[in-house]
Design goal:
mainly alpha; 13 helices; 0% strand
Length: 352
């Protein structure tokens, strides 16, 4: 083969790779736009329906300050905070789930499966029921609880090299321990406090307020850009540690930093709305199917927004006179997927 022929073959391969990247980029942009449109459509319906029904035009006018007093109260005080808090916390859960599952290369490595959400819940409920705290203090307790549980799982599973399969199994065991401690604490509380805690533990948007929305928004502003900065290195960690180190990536430090960021996202969301079940678990796999060949963290956040807002719409308006917490509906969505994943797991313990 002549030099010219070799160069021509290399040029053809380069053009094929470039064309494939362009095709994937176009698909990624189309998927993100479609997901955003679907999320906005569900949000518009959520702001419109209820005991006092509004048209989409009325909702838009009210959001821009043109509605009357009643429309402003219904949209801006009752419905918009619930929608905004649900969307923001969904982004937290979706991105955190994507980071966990990508880092550990295991579809079961979700914060609500392996006990990280449970750690945040235990610390938050302890702060509420025992210490009588609220607001930012509860968020700080939730972060510390999630971080302690995640650190314990990490240390227990890191002997001989971090294995996603071992991390998940140890995490499930720790989750049972945390849930046992949480149930004990609830049984020792006053009946009314225990009832409120149980509703919160299912995952509820009923107490949405602009203070909670501001705290979650600030958390997202800090944490999501940090995850985005480390995303290229996360892509390298998908290969293996030796390859990543050969490419100049300090694998252990990057993995630890990403785990801390993901834990913080889970803690911020859990402190605001409780551990909404299966959102982090389901959103990332759906996003990866829609955007193959990439990290799909942004798509995971948008899928999570769609899941939470649609689930809350069903929970509040499509079950007749019954009103249930949003976590009940997300559990109905996520539990069958978990069963399917376990049934189709191969002999090595990985999802099919």
């Amino acid at each position: 083969m002549s030099v010219a022929t070799g160069r021509s073959a290399m040029a053809d391969e380069t053009s094929v790779v470039r064309a494939e990247r362009m095709r994937r980029g176009r698909r990624r942009r189309v998927v993100l736009v479609v997901l955003a449109v679907v999320a906005l459509a569900i949000g518009g319906v959520s702001l419109s329906v209820g005991e006092y029904t509004l048209s989409v035009a009325d909702v838009v006018r009210t959001l821009f300050g043109g509605g009357d007093a009643l429309e402003s109260f219904v949209v801006l005080q009752l419905r918009a905070p619930r929608l905004a808090l649900g969307a923001l916390t969904a982004v937290c859960f979706g991105v955190a789930g994507g980071v966990f599952q990508t880092l550990l290369r295991n579809p079961l490595a979700s914060p609500d499966i392996i006990g990280v959400s449970g750690g945040a819940s235990f610390a938050a409920v302890y702060a509420i029921l025992v210490l009588g705290l609220s607001g930012l203090a509860v968020s700080l307790f939730a972060f510390v609880g999630a971080l302690v549980v995640a650190a314990a799982i990490y240390l227990l599973s890191a002997r001989g090299g971090l294995s996603g399969y071992r991390f998940v199994l140890i995490g499930i065991g720790v989750a049972f321990m945390v849930n046992a401690a949480l149930n004990f604490m609830i049984t020792r509380a006053e009946v009314r406090d225990a009832r409120d805690a149980l509703v919160w533990l299912v995952g509820s948007l009923g107490s949405a307020g602009w203070d909670e929305i501001l705290r979650v928004a600030l958390g997202l502003v800090v944490l999501v850009p940090a995850v985005a900065l480390l995303a290229p290195r996360l892509r390298m960690l998908q290969l293996d540690d030796d390859t990543a180190i050969g490419l100049g990536v300090p694998a252990a430090r990057v993995r630890l930093a990403l785990l801390v960021l993901a834990v913080a996202l889970v803690a911020v969301a859990t402190a605001a709305v409780g551990p909404i079940a299966f959102v982090a678990f389901v959103a990332a796999p759906i996003a990866r199917r829609l955007v193959p060949g990439g990290l799909a963290l942004l798509a995971s956040g948008l899928v999570a927004v769609i899941i939470v807002t649609f689930a809350d719409l069903v929970a509040q308006h499509l079950l007749g006179d019954v009103r249930v917490p949003v976590g009940v509906i997300t559990a109905v969505i996520g539990a069958p997927y978990l069963l399917w994943l376990l049934v189709t797991a191969d002999r090595r313990g990985r999802g099919a």
